[in-house]
Amino acid sequence: MTDGKQGSAVALKASPSAAAMARGLRGGSNPLGEWTARVKEIEAGFRAWMATQPIHVEAAVATAVGAVQGGALGGLMGSLSADGGSPFPTPPNANPQAMASLKQAQALAGGPLVQARNFAVMTGANAGISCVMRRIRGQEDIQGSMAAAFGSGALFSIVSGMGTPNPVVNAITTGAAFAVFQGGFFMIGQRFSKPASEDTYYSRTRSMLHQLGLEKYEKNFKKGLLNDQTLPLLTDSALRDVKIPPGPRLLILDQIKRDPELVRAK
Q1: According to the model, what pLDDT value does residue 134 have?
Q2: CA quadruple 111, 116, 122, 126: dihedral positive or negative?
Q3: Mean pLDDT, the chain cut into blocks of 10 residues (266 residues total)
Q4: 3-class SS string, 115-179
Q5: Contacting residues for 259 by C-beta, under 8 A, at least 6 apart
Q6: 213 within 8 A of 44, measured Cβ to Cβ
Q7: Which segments constitute the SAM domain (predicted)?
Q8: Vertex 45, ends 136 and 255: CA angle to 5°?
Q9: CA atoms of 59 and 144, how far apart (whole Å)
Q10: What is the pLDDT of residue 69?
Q11: CA–CA separation, 142 and 182 (whole Å)
Q12: ∠ at Cα 132 (209, 52), nearest 5°?
């Protein structure tokens, strides 16, 4: 009996993974919760890294990530068609106007590769332009959102080939339609996500912290009464007084230096 216990102890010591598993079972740890927390930590670190990069690097990374996401979504949508191609046959001797309408329908009904390409271009352009507009304007607003939608819609029209026989005109009209829809959604989103009246003085602060992946320190700002009006005046000592660690302090101060509106307000 004693030999069996000693053998188990030796086995646990010899196998770190087995020991960790045993500790997890005794402590009631949640592997899924730990994995989720790890993913969030990596995401926050990635956002913080992106915020410290030059505008061209951030725009390139945002475009690439958006293109990958859009390509995956487009490939999934394209795989739903039965033969992997266009379900719309080309009519013989069709006039240019009819062919243009057919091209528009085919742009949203191609096979996996066609849809992956179209959506990769659309979402990648939207993400990249949004990133550039946010860095230039210092905030996410309806103008930047509509500019990104216009660019993504125009490129989607050109790449998908839905602009026959006037690709330039069709690209402009498609981009304008995308911009109008995006502007409407942006206004609706702002209306329903409007913060409570007591939090209106922290809207810009909240947006900055969320952009940096540091939203958990919003309570520190509120506790120290560091609202939007104090952002241009923030110093390292002020952030230290509200118990914000050194790393996040550096990111916050660097973001304030990059914001043209906050720099002008000093």
Answers
A1: 83
A2: positive
A3: 47 44 50 79 77 84 92 83 48 49 52 86 93 81 91 89 74 92 86 60 85 90 88 91 92 87 62
A4: HHHHHHHHHHHHHHHHHHHHHHHCCCCHHHHHHHHHHHHHHHHHHHCCCCCCHHHHHHHHHHHHH
A5: 138, 139, 208
A6: yes
A7: 208-258
A8: 30
A9: 14
A10: 92
A11: 8
A12: 45
Q: Position 104: which residue type? A: Q
pTM: 0.54
What residues have CB less than 8 Å from 94, skipping those under 6 apart?
A: 102
Give CA–CA dist 115/104, Å, rounded.
13
Q: Could you tell me the two tokens for 106? A: 């085919």
**C-alpha distances out from residue 171 to 34, 121, 131, 156, 176, Å:** 47, 14, 22, 8, 8
In angstroms, rounded to a whole number, what is the distance separating the alpha carbons of residues 248 and 232?
A: 17
pLDDT at 85: 46
Give me 128's structure tokens.
């990249």
